[in-house]
Design brief:
The chain is of the alpha+beta class. Helix content is 36%, strand content 15%. The chain has helices at 2-15, 33-43, 51-64, 75-86, 102-110, 129-139, 179-188, 240-250, 274-285, 287-306, 333-345, 372-380; strands at 68-72, 93-97, 114-118, 140-144, 153-157, 164-168, 194-196, 204-205, 208-209, 216-220, 233-237, 311-312, 319-320, 326-329, 351-352, 381-384. It has a four-stranded mixed β-sheet with strand order 1-11-10-7. A four-stranded antiparallel β-sheet has the order 12-14-16-15. A three-stranded parallel β-sheet has the order 3-2-6, with helices on both faces. The chain binds pyridoxal-5'-phosphate (PLP).
Length: 404
């Protein structure tokens, strides 16, 4: 119990939260947010037209180094479109990790494809290249066939007869997965790589931003992410044709014309509003500042947890993590539950990792591998408060009475 109390004190001191109840992750508005939102209202451009959308896209492209960035109403919608553009069709199969947020698996399902849930690495919590390679070697046969935009020798699942149409690694809590190794394996099997970088804006692997390794990548600007546009997402790609198709599909597939309403395929109303983009632009201006503060917070946590029985999860080798959500490992599931119980009762929000996807009713019939690491992590991971500790934003930690 005393370690739990110390944990609460360090959280209260480090996070600088204005509320008595310390949430897992809250947004910080310290820049031009009000000014840009006022501009939207003053100019009457609050909806799907306005200059902030283009500006937000350009800022994201410049920041990540992607050639193109296309805005969408949220990260889930962005991932749906990215998968369609990678060529995922109904009746296909898509590889992803069992340990992820539901949006990854849902976006795959929207295309009509079925997810395959493979294991993650213990050091990254991201999709394991070893798991992917051994699963593919055992379960896939290559057939010579063209299913545009893919062509040549394509991978088919020997058991189900279905095509493996994409692989979607997710950079868990902002820690980069072993993405170059995943890309090498996907290239070997002619599988398009689509990165779910919803949690990892600002994280790099070998100096390159996550979300820019695959054919397409996506970001999220939901309220709990490292920066927020209220709600929002972004599709990243280096391919000009895909970027144009992404814009087209997210805007009802309308053919550009001064007055005619002509649409050339089934599109989606997935566009981001100017109001959301305005908020996103102001937040992007402070991304580096937030990253610096969050890395400082992670350092404080790291030095605190060295002397405890918990293990603080640090950035993987050769990576720079945005430390979106800090995570610790307890010694087992029982200790995890005791910690969750005590901290949540005492005003500090903590959370276990998501229920593994294959354990949810709608995905219970999906293929998996042994998921050894995923199960081990699911029993032990606890997320602790991680909002950017902006100086002056909060108040000092008070002396507390504890409820036990
Ligand atoms: C947040 C998130 C998304 C997208 O979420 P939206 O709320 O739709 O923006 C997708 N995948 C993961 C792993 C996420 O954490």
């Amino acid at each position: 119990m005393s370690e739990f109390k110390e944990l609460i004190t360090i959280v209260r001191t480090a996070v600088n939260e204005p509320l008595d109840f310390i949430p897992l992750h809250a947004p910080r508005f310290t820049g031009n947010e009000k000014k840009y939102l006022a501009e939207c209202i003053e100019t009457n451009f609050v909806s799907s037209v306005g200059e902030f959308v283009g500006r937000f896209e350009q800022m994201c492209a410049e920041y990540t180094g992607a050639k193109y960035a296309v805005a969408a109403m949220n990260g889930t919608a962005a991932l749906h479109i990215a998968l369609l553009l990678a060529g995922v069709k109904s009746e296909d199969e898509v590889i992803t990790q069992a340990l992820t947020f539901i949006a990854t698996a849902n976006a795959i399902s929207y295309t009509g494809a079925k997810p395959i849930f493979l294991d993650v690495d213990k050091e990254t919590m991201g999709l394991s290249p070893i798991a992917v390679e051994s699963w593919l070697q055992e379960n896939v046969e290559m057939r010579e066939i063209n299913i545009l935009p893919s062509s040549g020798h394509l991978p088919f699942n020997k058991t189900t007869g279905r095509r493996i149409a994409a692989c979607v690694p997710m950079h868990t809590f902002g820690h980069p997965a072993k993405i170059t190794e995943l890309k090498r394996i996907c290239d070997l099997f002619n599988i398009p790589l689509v990165e779910d970088a919803a949690e990892s804006l600002g994280s790099t692997y070998s100096g390159k931003q996550t979300g820019t390794f695959g054919k397409l990548g996506i970001l999220s600007f939901n309220g709990n992410k490292i920066i927020t546009s209220g709600g929002g997402g972004m599709i990243l790609t280096d391919d000009e044709v895909l970027a144009k198709q992404a814009k087209h599909l997210t805007t009802q597939a309308k053919v550009s014309h001064p007055w005619e309403f002509v649409h050339d395929s089934i599109g989606y109303n997935y566009r981001l509003t100017n109001v959301n983009a305005a908020l996103g632009c102001a937040q992007m201006e402070n991304l580096d500042y937030f990253l610096q503060l969050k890395r400082e917070l992670a350092e404080r946590y790291k030095s605190f947890f060295i002397d405890t029985e918990f293990t603080f999860f640090t950035e993987p080798e050769d990576c720079r993590s945005n430390y979106w959500l800090n995570a610790i490992l307890t010694k087992d599931r029982q200790q995890r539950d005791e910690l969750l119980e005590f901290t949540n009762k005492n005003g500090v929000m903590t959370r276990p990792v998501w229920e593994l996807m294959n354990r949810l009713p709608m995905f219970s019939d999906c293929q998996t591998d042994g998921l050894q690491n995923s199960i081990w992590l699911a029993d032990r991971v606890v997320n602790i408060p991680s909002s950017a500790p902006v100086p002056g934003y909060g108040k000092k930690a008070d002396l507390m009475e504890y409820e036990e």
